Amino acid sequence: MHMPVTIIGAGLGGLTLARVLQVHGIPVTVYEAESSPTVRSQGGLLDIHDYNGQLALEAAGLMDEFHAIVLEGRQAMRVLDPDGTVLFDKADDGSGGRPEVQRGELRQILLDSLPAGTVRWGHKVGSTRALGSGRHEVAFADGGTVVTSLLVGADGAWSRVRPLLSNAIPEYSGTSFVETYLFHADTRHPAAAKTVGGGMLMAPSPGREIFAHRESGDTLHTYVALTRPQDWFAAIDFADAAAATARIAREFEGWAPELTALITDGDTAPVLRPQYALPTGHRWDRVPGVTLLGDAAHLTPPNGEGANLAMYDGAELGKALAAHPDDVEAALGEYEQAMFPRSAEVPTFEGGEVPGIDSEQNTAQGLIDMITEKNR
Description:
By secondary structure, the chain is of the alpha/beta class. It is built from 13 helices and 17 strands.
């Protein structure tokens, strides 16, 4: 296949696609709005699943590099009641299929695997338009344009490529996360560190939950999930870190102090992260010369699969294009027909295990149901 592929977005999905295309000798260029790979933090830990994310890395030929950045012991999990009672405590015995890595390190592995110049930084997309015969024009905010016969939107929730295929717009899911960090936890925050343990902590309750994960460098990363309308969060001044922290902590009055300390003892200002979703079962009719992957295609409420699915989308699309070098439309159709039902599947909680829990995000309703059932 000699037709160059244009990818919008240098997240994990877009970079995985670029790498798989490069492995198969297919020319590719990635355009990314951010000015450099280090312009912002890439988030916390990701558990990379053996049934999708790791398969994508295998297709990319990067399993050795992946294993080199795995954080040992981080698949441990503890689940606590709001009063601090331990409901579930599982050590990391090395048998789990979801090893944890730092998102930024995983992204860097993908970036390092691509030839210099593959990613064009500082190219924020302003608009896209169809030119006919499967060709599309991408207009950038700086006034530049590029015309391509094969365009892939890997540009996340607010994709500028999606309007070429669908009128769908993400809507607020009803839940927002508030995020903070505790540094040097074992020495400065020993009670919280002991509560979290060596891996992930979950304290689920309907409408309000606390999650925390032990990252590298003795850091605890806390996520508070609250099911509240956006107006409720808008009334909080997050520019006033102390006041915002106190307001969020009030939603957990009566909870065990070792749990609320994960909020009140934060060493960083709380960051609000509203959660959005596309309509359930979002799909589109085949449009020549363009497709989507990851959150651009199937943004959902947090279910633990987002990053893994984006990488798997990228790998599967890359393999389809390599398998149909003379028929791009057959490749895109094959990819989409497999991707639509795959992205609509929802992880379940069975047998005391907790599949589908992503280190960064999960509403935990499935876990609440599991605990309720086990405690009957």
